[in-house]
């Protein structure tokens, strides 16, 4: 018998800062995201089709072929969003035991996607929340478009398991969920055994995490009919600069 889906409790936009400080995470409804970012669902939907053009992830070390992605970097400062020159994605092994220590160079997010006004409004709005919680400063943002598909069976949104990302905040937006089961979000307090679980089902709902305080993962997905996939936009916000591979002393 299939397990019932646990739906999240949505935080009203006006309570984001308080709930993020109290609990280490918040979940916004699609309408809440639009209120936060001063955009419309139509504006967000305008770049949804770009998830149909993501190249395969060539760096999966578990032998899978279930993930496609694009990646670009930005600096959000005082409401301005500036894209940086294209760069690789790097994490230390302390935060990603499976892929840490590798410089992974993915194809950049398409210029047409970034050109949408809702894209800029979204990055700005989340940056303002980060500054409200941790003080006004530039935020170094890595944007990842992900598609997890079930063509070959099970797809794993977080093959590295429960983890932190080594940043200050992580925003996970559900873009699409088609013909799949699973994909439950699990959030654990980093300093205790307390945890929450729920499944995002509404496109453009958002989980915003304080990466210093919580550990997160998403469970594998399985197809319920052909063409099953789950699309997300993951935005990480880090103070002080991007994560860099340490230089090797000569």
Approximate shape? globular
List the uncertain runs.
Answer: none
| Strand order within the widest beta sheet | 1-9-5-12-4-2-3
Task: Provide the residue-averaged pLDDT.
Answer: 93
The CATH class is identified as Mainly Beta
Q: What portion of the residues fall into strands of 2 or more residues?
A: 25-35%
CATH superfamily: q2cbj1_9rhob like domain
Order of helices and strands: HEHHEEHHEEEEEEEEE
Number of helices: 5
**Largest sheet report:** 7 strands, antiparallel
Structural category is: alpha+beta
- CATH fold-level label: Jelly Rolls
Helical percentage: 10-25%
Please report the total strand number as a whole number. Answer: 12
Q: In CATH terms, what is the architecture?
A: Sandwich
Count of separate structural domains: 1
Radius of gyration: 17 Å
Task: Report how far the terminal alpha carbons are from each other.
Answer: 60 Å
């Amino acid at each position: 018998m299939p397990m019932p889906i646990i739906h999240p409790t949505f935080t009203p936009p006006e309570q984001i800062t308080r709930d993020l400080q109290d609990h280490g995470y918040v979940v916004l409804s699609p309408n809440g995201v639009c209120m936060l970012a001063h955009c419309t669902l139509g504006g967000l939907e305008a770049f949804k089709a770009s998830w149909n053009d993501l190249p395969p992830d060539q760096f999966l070390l578990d032998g899978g072929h279930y993930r496609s992605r694009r990646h670009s970097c930005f600096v959000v400062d005082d409401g301005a969003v500036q894209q940086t020159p294209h760069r690789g994605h790097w994490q230390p092994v302390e935060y990603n035991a499976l892929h840490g220590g590798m410089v992974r160079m993915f194809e950049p997010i398409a210029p047409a996607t970034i050109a949408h006004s809702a894209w800029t409004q979204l990055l700005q709005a989340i940056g303002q929340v980060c500054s409200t919680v941790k003080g006004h400063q530039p935020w170094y943002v890595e944007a990842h478009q992900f598609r997890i598909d079930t063509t070959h069976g099970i797809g794993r949104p977080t093959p590295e398991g429960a983890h932190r990302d080594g940043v200050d905040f992580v925003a996970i937006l559900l873009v699409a969920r088609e013909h799949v089961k699973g994909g439950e979000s699990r959030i654990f307090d980093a300093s205790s055994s307390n945890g929450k679980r729920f499944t995002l089902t509404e496109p453009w709902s958002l989980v915003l995490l304080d990466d210093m305080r919580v550990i997160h993962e998403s469970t594998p997905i399985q197809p319920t009919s052909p063409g099953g996939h789950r699309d997300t936009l993951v935005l990480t916000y880090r103070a002080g600069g991007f994560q860099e591979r340490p230089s090797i002393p000569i």
